[in-house]
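Re: duplicated header lines in exported structure tokens

Our pipeline writes sequence and tokens for each protein into one text file. With two proteins the header for the second block appears twice in some exports. Here is an export where it did not happen, for reference. First protein block:
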Amino acid sequence: MDGSGGKPPGRAAGFGLIELVLALLLLGVGLLAAGPLLGTTARLTAQARSRSAAALAAQDALERLSDLCRRNPSAAELSPGDHREDALLEVRNPLEGNVLDRYQVSWSVGAIPDPRPGVTLPGKAVAVRVTTALPGGDLAEDRAVTVNMVTGCAPGAASEVAP
């Protein structure tokens, strides 16, 4: 043996220039492939945040209407039909104060359905719909979140309808 540890004479240990260029090329291709995934992840995260905020807004509206139903079951907001908030609900970034999303909150009030003929149930069925408002003020119906609630805010039990 020549004392080189079994390596051929004249050959240095480590990476050569070709190996280094090949490694950098593979790394670059991998980063280019991952680039669009970062954009998709950011977009999906923003959509999830928007839907979560809309669901919270719907839950808040249901709680307000339920409380109003307990205090004043004959309030105008609980009359049968469709209703909506006059102003758009804004969700702001707590750190920067800029508007993240705007929502239109609307709700529909109707009778509680009963499959038994001639029977009406006390209370009201309320469906709250929260729709994302686009920057121009139009509503994005495809991004709406609907939450349904049935509340027994009228006194009394189920009663038979007179024929």
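Second protein block, exported in the same file:
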Amino acid sequence: MRNRHHLGHPNAPGGDLVMSAHRTELFSDAVLAIALTLLVLDLSIRTFQASRLQSTLLHLWPTYVAFIAAFFYVSVMWINHHFAFARLNSVDKPVMWANIAILCGAVVLPFPTSLVALAFEQGSQTDQRVAVVLYALLAALMTLSWAIFFVVVARRPHLWKHEDSVHVWKHEIRRSTAGAVGYALTAIIGFFVPEVGLALFLFFPIYYAFA
């Protein structure tokens, strides 16, 4: 617990910046809330023909699927983030940067989400392949960022609340790495069969929500 007496002081021994984990968690909550809000912006109808509202709504099914998949993804991120920070008393610069990498993926996610919806509504199969692969690769990088975060945290026991947390970090590293591999495989599958890739985007967040 060598840095516990230097929380919030940039001139801590060894050049470490150690501060309360609570402030970082509050900042992350705000970023993830904004990311969730941005996803809903694609749920809109700009125009439709008279007496064709029902068919127009049905035609937007890819938008609904993409929204649900991304919404669950970010929601699972928030839940995991909450439980991870519940085990931390404080954070230092490497942990904060690893956390920012996680948040970066969350705020970028609405972009491939909208591309997937647009490609399935108006694009060709080639467009669908590009959109699915882009979403899957970003999701893989986001999941990999979690593995990096847990590796960084696992190497800093002086930041933990509980001395027995090491088994939790190791489990989460394996879990996140498996998720990254899963999304990478989804990119390959989705390149050949975009519809299956879209279905897997729904499957993974729901699985991790209950696993």
